[in-house]
């Protein structure tokens, strides 16, 4: 499973903020209930911070490639050197 997902809302009790990037660990489907997922959030070195089970509506798919780690999903920024003459 291990697909990248982006948290769509804050979960302050877990120290997570909207925009944090995680990886799907497991899908939970129980008849009559909303689909849920266990999601692993980790630091930039790959150390697990927390694994949280949440409803599908807490997550969104990335719109571009994102690296793992608890970080905000941001578009790439390209710096251009514009020397003055």
TrEMBL record:
Protein name according to UniProt: DUF4926 domain-containing protein
Organism from which the protein derives: Microcystis aeruginosa TAIHU98
InterPro entries noted in UniProt: DUF4926
